[in-house]
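We treat protein structure as text, and this decision shapes the records that our systems exchange. The remainder of this section carries one protein's record, kept here as part of the documentation:
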Amino acid sequence: MTALTLSTSGAATLRADALVVGVAKGDGSTSGDLVVAPGAEAVDQAFDGKLATVLETLGASGAEGEVTKLPAPAGLKVPVVVVVGLGPAPAKDEDYDAEALRRAAGNAARALKGTKKAGFALPTGSAEDAGAIAEGALLGAYAFTAYQGGENKLAPAAKSSKGAKGGAKLPLGEVALLGAKPRDKAFKAAAERAVAVSEEINRARDLINTPPNDLYPESFAAVATTAGKEHGIKVQVLDEKALVKGGYGGLLGVGQGSTHGPRLVKLSYTHPKAEKTLALVGKGITYDSGGISLKPAGHNETMKCDMSGAAAVFAAVVSASRLGLRVNVTGWLALAENMPSGNATRPGDVLRMYSGKTVEVLNTDAEGRLVLADALTRASEEKPDAIVDVATLTGAMVLALGNRTFGVMANDDAFRTSIHEIASEVGEASWPMPLPADLRKGMDSPTADIANMGERMGGGLVAGLFLKEFVGEGIAWAHLDIAGPAFHEGAPYGYTPKGGTGSAVRTLVRLAERTAAGDLG
């Protein structure tokens, strides 16, 4: 993990391998359209006040995602200046957007792969700005290298991406944050929060990126157990025998085709002064072949990511513990591997769920809702103040919202609005989606209480309606379908890497913080 320090040095006196500053796009009212952002004053002075002119000569525009490296002039202690675009400059007397700073820091950190230490002198008008820059840099520096270089002596799922082998460049070693007031309590707290949350997001990314021959329900449960001991979280693991005894038909039905049996993992973080309890439920299909309803070639190569919801819940609970939040947070990881075999559930089979309801399985590739249903029922028994489930649940949600936005459904409009606002606040793209009552009829079954499939159109909403059936009465519930943003197959951008992203972790952590503060009623 990249280290973070709050530096007392100025931009001109910092000794490092590189210095990061920002520029923004002006409004076009002057001949030069580049605006040198706060934090870059010393660098501009070292360029005799012509930093913008030099950059414009090189074709820089200040656009988001733009990175320009310059040899440092006399007057600076660093050899290289890295200039990142911040997008449009804010209006007079307004601050730079926190998400713009987060993405710029991520772009810079990625460009500095192989560098030992870099100073970040981006605009830090507030502790929030400092936290966003730190978060962006730490997330942007992420690399998954556990399987590179020919050595693999440790359990990969338990390893972090500390280094690369076989000649690959190491991630940026240290981020020195300039202008962040190291002795100020608010700035220190923002930095500590950024480190805790970023480390857990990166741990979630490691889990998502780990190949399914090494990450399966039992090994995932082992990782959770180890983390629980480290962070004072009580961990309970229900294995196959316990699941059979408890009547968890959904988890058992999905997992019975695999040689790796299912698990239900309960993570309990409690605070002695907590007044609210939040339950988080994560879909943890460690590999999804589709089962007997087999996915076609071209649709199964990345299905190791189908446990991203469980990874997000795991990361959020550990983050809550590390931050000492004054709220009880219980995480439920519904873990199974969905495989075809002579023992696998068949289309047409009927499963008796933990709730007692029966489900006719029309499509074994609609398995996530089955494991979540058992976990939602079990979570509801403890009467939490709210439940949020997170899942890479439907391709329909990707068709509706694209690859970067997750859908939010809920049984309470105000709660859905709160989740959407919280996601926007932390820089995660989401969109509120309805649960139309007329779609419920499509899941009527002549054989069982409900079928696991309904109308094809609006499939993401149908899945949400199915889950709603298993939420306890009177409990506020939200469903986050992260099928789009959970696993990024394109080129990295901002602080988002190729592969597992850790989608929804920041939203869940901020939800826990807001709940602890009493802001959610």
